[in-house]
Amino acid sequence: MTGRYVVNLPIHSGKAPRWLFERMVSLAEQILIIIAESFSPTEILNRLADPWWFQALGGILGFDWHSSGLTTTTAGALKVVLDRIGPELGIFAAGGKGKTSLKTPEHIRQSVERYGLNVDAEKLVDTSRVVAKIDNALVQDGYTLYHHFFVFDNQGRWIVIQQGMNQNARYARRYHWRFDNKILNNDKARIVAPFKLSRVLNLVSSTSASTREFILEFIRSYPDVAVGVYKKMLEDVREINFPRREYIVPSLDIKPENLYKILVKTYEAHPRDFYELIKIRGVGPKTFRALALVGELVYGTEVSWRDPVKFTYAHGGKDGHPYPINREDYDRTIQILEKLASKLKDKRARGKARQLLLGLGEG
Question: Positive or negative CA dihedral for 201, 270, 121, 76?
Answer without folding.
Answer: negative
